[in-house]
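[Discussion] Sanity-checking designs against the backbone

I'm trying to build intuition for which residues belong where. Below is a structure token string of 123 positions. I'd appreciate it if someone posts a full sequence so I can compare it with mine line by line.
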């Protein structure tokens, strides 16, 4: 009986988390050598996103392989809900080959997330 209640509670919590909107929505240039849109080693990588919450954020480029921050683009940036912000990364020319992602830390929410659908493949 206790197991059945625990399973029911777990399913309800999982459903609530699934229905919760993401912290941010993003758009940007996703580059891969086969696509050939831009080469981030020679051109700035540009992307944008908006937060769903009023907060102060830090925006970083991180290595997908190691999780290490390779560049911090903004610190303590004030954002309002649904206000689109634009960023560019000029440091790709010195970056090692690999996959990179954009990570955002929300200070007040004390949560960190990746910007959906934005990653860079440097070869």
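Best answer:
Here's mine. Compare freely.
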């Amino acid at each position: 009986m206790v197991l059945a209640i625990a399973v029911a509670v777990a399913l309800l919590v999982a459903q609530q988390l699934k229905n919760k909107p993401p912290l941010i929505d993003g758009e940007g240039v996703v580059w891969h050598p086969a696509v050939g849109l831009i080469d981030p080693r020679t051109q700035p990588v540009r992307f944008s996103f908006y937060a769903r919450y009023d907060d102060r954020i830090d925006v970083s480029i991180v290595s997908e392989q190691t999780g290490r921050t390779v560049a911090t683009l903004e610190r303590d940036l004030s954002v309002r809900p649904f206000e689109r912000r634009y960023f560019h990364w000029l440091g790709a020319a010195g970056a090692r080959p690999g996959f990179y992602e954009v990570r955002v830390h929300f200070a007040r929410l004390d949560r960190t997330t990746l910007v959906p659908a934005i990653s860079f493949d440097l070869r």
